[in-house]
Structure prediction request, 163 residues.
Amino acid sequence: YNDFIERYLGKRTGKIVELETGKVLGKHNGYWFHTIGQRKGLGIAFGKPMYVYGLDVDKNEVILCDNETLFSRTVYANQINCMSVPEFTDGMRFRGKIRYSHKMADCTVRMVGEDLLECTFDEPQRAITPGQALVLYDGEYVAGGGTILGAQLPINQRKNEAE
Prediction:
């Protein structure tokens, strides 16, 4: 995979930084070689386990954190599709997955915008990754889902929510 990506995107050195302090911990050869939740293959010894928290494309930085920081109960998704339900309404309960191999977990949803769903899991979920699919199950049926934006409300939506 990395060889394929390197042929098409090349290498572009950037900083590896710690989330909490902003301290530069090392360098990477392209943020596109990393994924949220990744621990191995960072090429640096930290003295404690460190994981990829996020990728700052604009700054060309890979941001690291400890394992506990990767957990969140809330997921935001857009490009919403309804399958076995006509629409998502506030307080609906489902079992949700944040990636293909993820174990289903109980959650509650609410619409926070025309095409923006907030899904709150009963228990924190690890490494919520933008671009992955949020799939919501109603028993054995797929209720619907959307494309994960992240564990925080997108900045442009935060302003709308405050109004």
About this structure: The first helix runs from residue 2 to 9.
